[in-house]
Amino acid sequence: MALMSWNVRGLGNKETVRALKNDAFKFHPSIIFLSETKQKRKYLEKIRRNMKMENSFYVDPLGIAGGLALWWTKEVNITILNAENNFIDAEIVYNGKEVLFATFIYGPPYVEDKQVFWDKLSTLRSNPSDKWCIIGDSSIVARQDEKIGGANFDVSQARRFFEFLEKSSVLELPIKGGNFTWSNLRSKGDAILEKLDRILANIGWSTLFPKAIGILVVAITSDHSPIFLLLKGLNKRSKKTFKFESKWLLEEDCSLNIN
Question: Could you tell me if residue 255 is inside a domain?
Fold first, then answer.
C-alpha cells in the first residue's frame, strides 16, 4: 500500500491535474491526500472518478483558499474520525484486520495559528499502542539545513514542532529524492528552498512497516512537491527513476520560469 500527499496549490489548471495523474500512475497509491485544492467538490469528484479512486472525503475551501481532499480505493477501509481546515484524522483498516491511524495535515501559514494546530494534533491519540502516521505539509522549517535562501528559519516555531514530536512520541521518517519539498519557483539568487512536507510515525507504525520509505517527486506545477509513503519499500525489480535535486535550482545553468 502507498499513500500520496500533495499541496497542489489549486487543482484548477490542466497541467496540475495531468501531473497528479502521472505521479499517481508511478506508485499506484491506495490513498491520495490533496491540500489547498481551492476547488468545489463537484469538480474534484470528476477528477477522482477519472483516477479510479472509489471513495472520498472533503473539507471545503474557505472562498478560494485552502480545501482538503482525501481519496481512497476499495482496497482500504477508512473511517473519518475528525476533520478541520488543517487536517483530516482517519482510522484505516489494513489487510482486513490491522487497525491503523493516519492524520493528513495542511499546516496553517500564519504564526499565530501554528501553536493551536500542533496542540490539537497532540490530543488526537490518547492510546500509546495506536499505530499512527502523520503525513502532509507541516508548514514548519525544523532546522537551518532545511532551508536555503530567504530569512533564517524561525527557532521558536521549530521548538514547538520538536515539543510536539516528543509529546506525541512520533519520529520523522526520511524522504528520498531531494532535500527540499517547497520552492518559491525562482532561480539563481532569488531562489528559496525549504523542507515543509513531512512523514511522521510512532513506534507502533514503524514496527509494522519496517521497510516503509518516503519518496519525493519534484513537480513544477505547484510550489510543493508531492511525497509518497511506500509501506513495503521500493520494488527492487522496478526501473530506476530520475531523481531531481531541488538545490539544482540555485545553479546558474538551471532556470525555472513559471508564469
Answer: no
